[in-house]
Design brief:
Layout (H helix, E strand, L loop, with lengths): L20 H21 L6 H12 L21 H11 L3 H27 L9 H20 L3 H14 L4 H14 L6 H7 L3 H16 L2 H4 L1 H20 L11 H8 L4 H26 L7 H13 L12 H12 L6 H16 L6 H9 L2 H20 L1 H4 L13 H5 L1
């Protein structure tokens, strides 16, 4: 009997090879360009100088929290003590050089994540113009440019969360550590811990909580145990006051709470009593929906919907915070690149969101821009996008048509096997 012919190994998905020399050259050129841009505009950013001033105030034994911290109200310091330690090396440099490194790092994180997303899901692959690229750029670019101009830490937190959610199926411990780091700096990444639990990813959820607690307590090595607890108490009091009282917010809030506040003639406590049950019900409904779908591992729409719902359900959402749409923007391109991956309804809703997001910055005049924010134009973008992505999750798009990625260990496996 002739020996059985060896079974050929499955071909690796497109885009999974090592970066080429051309890609490395383009990457280096992009980082150099952003570094040069940071040297020119970084010192004039909004939030980056606040971080520098907070570190200097700490070294001079001045106030770290409260309206007199940072550069004064509303540009005050709003992060837990551990962020002072993370940011300390930047404060030792001249402001222009530190801001340039800060901006170049964001560009590096953006390009690295886009390539990792493409390796995992098959898009983006190349820079050739296409409707898929146009949709992704229209949706993300306005918010990305604004966040880069502000010099906030927000994009780094978004990149950490996106990387954690991308790595969770294959490297749960590393994914949990990345999300834990994000939680230690900003509270909102906690949004994804129940999402992981609902989608049966208990290990990264547990690691995230453990790492977040460890990093929150770690500054005791510098400030002392009592000193760190005192600073954490000041920070918690400051942020709870900000979160519970809309009068402390100086910008048109683009979350559901902000829209309700401007649309209804109720007091702030009444708005809070109305908003909290709606918010909790929507979040629990989404978790139940995500748990029931179990879409293929090669479909990124569930995570995209989670990122899209986050700013809708948050207490306060500044326009620059919509850089959280990084994953949804890439998912939008992924859907458009596969003609069979999205129904007409999904394409219509997502296209409307991308067109509106791209059109808002083109409206001339500061008053007109402020009016659009007061009317919740960016909230409408979020709602349209969320509706399209949820429709895709429900079977009107990606889930049924997407081919499982052979490199993803949980594709097509039962929940117990996927958890291992």
């Amino acid at each position: 009997m002739a020996p059985a012919a060896p079974v050929p190994a499955p071909a690796a998905p497109a885009g999974r090879g090592a970066p080429t020399a051309v890609e490395w050259t383009a990457f280096a050129a992009a980082i150099a360009a952003f570094f040069a841009l940071g040297l020119r505009i970084g010192a004039r950013s909004v939030d980056f100088p606040v971080y520098c001033h907070a570190v200097l105030a700490w070294r001079a034994h001045g106030p770290i929290y409260g309206p007199h911290s940072g550069l004064g109200w509303p540009m005050y310091y709003r992060y837990p003590p551990v962020f002072l330690l993370f940011f300390f090396p930047f404060a030792l440099l001249p402001v222009a050089a530190a801001a340039a490194i800060w901006l170049a790092g964001k560009a590096a994180a953006l390009l690295a994540f886009a390539r990792a997303f493409g390796r995992e899901f098959g898009w983006p692959r190349a820079l050739a113009p296409s409707p898929a690229w146009l949709a992704a750029i229209l949706l993300l670019a306005p918010y990305l440019v604004l966040e880069f101009r502000y010099g906030n830490v927000e994009f780094y937190i978004v990149a950490l969360c996106a990387a954690a959610l991308l790595l969770a199926p294959r490297r749960p411990a590393l994914a949990g550590a990345l999300l834990g780091l994000a939680i230690a700096v900003k509270v909102w990444p906690l949004f994804f811990v129940p999402y992981w639990l609902a989608t049966r990813r208990r290990r990264p959820a547990a690691v995230a909580i453990a790492v977040a607690l460890l990093l929150t307590l770690a500054p005791a090595l510098v400030f002392g145990w009592a000193g760190n607890l005192h600073l954490l108490g000041q920070w918690a009091a400051q942020e709870s006051t900000t979160a519970l009282h809309a009068g402390t917010i100086w910008f048109p809030n683009q979350s559901l709470r902000g829209v309700l506040t401007r649309a209804l003639p109720f007091s702030d406590p009444a708005i809070t009593r109305l908003w909290l049950p709606l918010d909790l019900a929507a979040y629990l409904a989404f978790l139940g929906f995500a748990r029931s779908r179990r879409e293929p591992a090669a479909a990124p729409t569930s995570v995209a919907a989670a990122f899209c719902l986050l700013p809708i359900l948050a207490p306060f959402t500044h326009v620059k915070d919509l850089v959280v749409l990084l994953w949804p923007a890439l998912t939008l391109g992924w859907l458009f690149a596969r003609r069979t991956a999205a129904s007409a309804a999904v394409r219509g809703l997502c296209s409307s969101a991308a067109i509106l997001a791209g059109a808002i910055p083109l409206v001339p005049g500061g008053r007109a821009q402020h009016w659009l924010q007061l009317k919740g134009a960016d909230f409408v973008v979020l709602c349209l996008l969320a509706a399209g992505l949820l429709r895709a999750m429900s079977g009107g798009g990606s889930g049924a048509q997407a081919r499982p990625n052979r490199q993803m260990p949980d594709a097509g496996l039962p929940p117990a096997e996927a958890e291992r």
